[in-house]
Amino acid sequence: xxxxxxxxxxxxxxxxxxxxxxxxxxxxxxxxxxxxxxxxxxxxxxxxxxxxx
Length: 53
Prior knowledge:
The chain is mainly β.
């Protein structure tokens, strides 16, 4: 889901490709992001910043 430029993605593993798309599912850009190398197994979620290019 998207809210004011924020996206919540469940079960992300090994940096899958992430794209922004319009209502017709046409890709507008790829969102480049980097996850931390170590995960906090006790945390409910992680945060990462991404850039749409």
